[in-house]
Structure formats: structure tokens, C-alpha cells
Amino acid sequence: MVEENSLMTIQRLIIDLPETAHLPAGLENDQDTLREAVAIVLYKQHRLTLREARDLMGVSRRDFEERMAGLGFSMMDERDLQAELDASRQFSA
Amino acid sequence: MPQDSSLPNGVVSDTGPFISLERMKGGFKFLRKLHDRVLIPPQVLDELAVGHGGGQAYLAHFGLGDFVEVVTAPPPSITLKGLDFGEQYAISLAMDRKFALLIEDQGARAIARSLGLVTSGIAGQVLAALRRGIIGEGEALDHFQSLLAGGRINRRLFEELVNATSAHSR
Predict the structure, then answer these.
(1) B129 in a structural domain
(2) In a domain, B53, yes or no
């Protein structure tokens, strides 16, 4: 469910999880962890810019880039291949 | 598209590529093989210096005092406002100098390229060095392995880069 707050132009996402979900004790209160996971996934989906995702997590640029690896993501992936191949040709011309 | 058919004779870097170089054994030494110097705006140095005790301490820690030049960039245009601070000022500096830009964030790279900048991530720099004969296949593969182990590239991109390295050597 998405709630819109017109004054602050934010959207609030509320996720219902089944009672049977095996969550670590206290995870339901671990807002930072959940926020971090959502921010990085939405960034990788291009739904948030790097700045928006970083702001959502409340961390520095370095921390953002370094925490991605901790959650199993990387800054660059196969979608970057063509750009890097193009670059290699341009920088070796 | 590049601003002209030849490569700009200088390079500016955003924050991410330096983090990639930190993950590589001899990463900055590698980049010195390709460029005489790299320009960064103060905003990029600020982002890099987090946890290092300040910008000068960062440059000293990696021995970059004679390689990295910190240059004030013109105020970024309104079209860059959605980007992170380092990205905005790195693009602005590269535009102002008509230099190429090292950048790894996909969204910022797309904007930089739409503005006519030549861009590259560190993986592209490794491939360029290989194509120019500055490094051999073994060093290129070592760098890609470091980028994978350091969480900078994912396994599928790693495998594609290994394939590109092998194809070059055949």
C-alpha cells in the first residue's frame, strides 16, 4: 500500500508479511536494514537515482557504494558492458 | 556521442571509479599508465575522503599528490540537479575542460553521454590499456578479478569482460 503525503511529497510503502515468515528476532523493528534493502533494489531498478537512494539510507556516497556489495549487489553489471566496450575503443583510438 | 571524433586530451573522474581503483591491487598505479593526471572537483574528494580524515589525508594515503589535481568546477547546470553532488560537479568540470569523464553510475553516465562527454568506468580503462598494449592479458584478468571480489562488478559482467579479453588476445 502506498500512502502519499502531499505536504512533504513523499510516498510511504507499507509491506504486509505473513505471520509464518521466518524473520530474525527484532527485524520488524530494524527499519534501517529494511530501508537499505529497498533503497538499493530500487536504485538497481533505476527507480531511484543514486542520490535519492543514498538520501533514503542517510549515508555518504562512499558508504552507499560500499554497502551495495554487502547486500550482494555491485555498482556495475552486465548492462554496463556495451558502454565499457565503447569506452575501451574510444580510449585506445 | 563524443564532442568530436578524437579523444579529449584529459580526464576528469567521479567518485565511484576511485573506489574501484582502491579495490584493485596497484589500481592507481595502473591508471597512471593511461593518464598523466586526473582532475577531480573538491566535491568528489570530499566524498572519497569519508573515513580517511580529510581530502589531503586521502590523497597522501594513496600517494596521489602528483597525479590527482583538485580543480574547482563551474556551478552545475539545472539539468544535473537530480544527480549526486560529486556527479554534478565532475560532469560540470569535464564539460568545462572538454575532457573525458570516468564515471560508473548508470544514470549519471547516461546524462553525461547525452551532453556529449566521452565516458568510461574502470573496466573500460582496463580494456583500453589492453587494446593499446600497455598491459597484458594476465594483468587485465587480475584487475577484473579484483573488481569482482571487491563488489564493483557482478559475475555476469566479469564473465563478459573475460570473454572480451580472450577475444582480444586471439
Answers:
(1) no
(2) yes
